[in-house]
Write a structure and sequence with these properties.
The chain is of the alpha/beta class. It has a domain at 9-121 and 176-231: Carbamate kinase, CATH 3.40.1160. The chain has 10 helices and 17 strands. The strands form 4 sheets. The chain has an 8-stranded mixed sheet with strand order 3-9-2-1-12-16-17-15, sandwiched between helices. Strands 8-4-10-11 form a 4-stranded mixed sheet, covered by helices on one side. The radius of gyration is 19 Å and the shape is globular.
Length: 319
């Protein structure tokens, strides 16, 4: 981007698996290593002059926090799930913030980075609160899954067919601190916000903001944030290179372009799994339907190339 160009804004939704890889122990050392790897394409976007807000997932990490809760319940009081979402938003944000600050410094870029723990508004009567569907934590061996289920935990399969714990996931309606995020982004600060979808809250007529024991899908929250910021593009960065037709079959085919109508048709066909690509496509389509220029779903390392349209799946308005 030339110095006289109008700044463009991108909201990046970064999957929680970018830090905790499948089949690898989720040690803090490993997660810091992956954080440093993950910010490389974001540094490239910063070099190109993009205004940037980052929303990260926390599925593996909040599941680990639930395990810590259970193992330590005889010693310390367990924390509710909404508080654990806020906690992971803080320490994952810290890892990404520090890694991004170091990456920007090495690149000679004078950009500030800040993490905000933001609250996501939900409806306390949302029927999704009574229907756990969101996979959290790591894949479970059969004995552990059976033991958790016997204690009342919801268990199911994710988009890859792996058995995991499930949490309730209400639909996000807004972000309490969206105006603060916008002011920072417009000033050129790279903002990490709505971590893990943000701890869900509702506005009680007597008490004010109150927490909800659930998790919110980070892609849907990121789409809401993108609207609030007036973003030019919404980018969902995940562990696959595109949306595929025939995913899970012997011959899957990547989809390079989708209109909003085509994306809606793909979602309604039922071929996309609720714990994987389905909410990503829904969030991307919602952003464009609401007036956004385009949305992109791509592999994390392909972020800059996906913005140029050379990889990933781009969702645009209907002709």
């Amino acid at each position: 981007m030339s110095p006289t160009s109008i700044p463009r804004t991108a909201v990046l939704a970064l999957g929680g698996n970018a830090l905790a890889r499948s089949g690898e122990r989720a040690t803090i050392t490993n997660q810091f290593r992956h954080a440093r790897e993950s910010v490389a394409p974001i540094v490239e976007l910063a070099r190109d002059g993009w205004r940037i807000a980052i929303v990260h997932g926390n599925g593996p990490q909040v599941g680990d926090e639930l395990v810590r809760n259970e193992r330590a319940r005889g010693v310390v009081e367990p924390l509710p799930l909404g508080v654990l979402v806020a906690a992971t938003a803080g320490w994952i944000g810290y890892m990404l913030q520090q890694s991004l600050q170091n990456g920007l410094r090495r690149a000679g870029l004078a950009r500030e980075v800040v993490t905000l723990v933001t609250q996501t508004v939900v409806d306390p009567a949302d029927p999704a609160l009574a229907r756990p569907t969101k996979p959290v934590g790591h894949p479970l061996p059969p004995a552990e899954a059976a033991a958790l289920e016997a204690r009342g935990a919801a268990i199911g399969r994710d988009g890859k067919g792996q058995v995991r714990r499930l949490a309730s996931s209400p639909v996000p309606l807004g972000i309490v601190e969206a105006a603060q995020v916008r002011r920072l982004v417009e000033a050129g600060t790279i903002v990490i916000a709505a971590g893990g979808g943000g701890p869900p809250v509702f506005d009680d007529p007597v008490l004010g903001w109150e927490g909800v024991d659930a998790v919110v899908d980070k892609d849907r929250t990121a789409a809401i944030l993108a609207h609030a910021l007036g973003a030019d593009v919404f980018v969902v960065l995940t562990d696959v290179d595109a949306v595929y037709r025939g995913w899970g079959t012997p011959a899957p085919v990547p989809i390079k372009q989708l209109t909003v109508t085509e994306a809606d048709r793909l979602v309604s066909s039922g071929v996309l799994d609720e714990g994987g690509m389905r909410p990503k496509v829904q969030a991307a389509a919602a952003f464009v339907r609401g007036g956004g220029e385009r949305a992109v779903i791509a592999r994390l390392s392909d972020g800059p190339a996906a913005l140029r349209g050379t990889t990933g799946t781009t969702i645009t308005r209907d002709a």
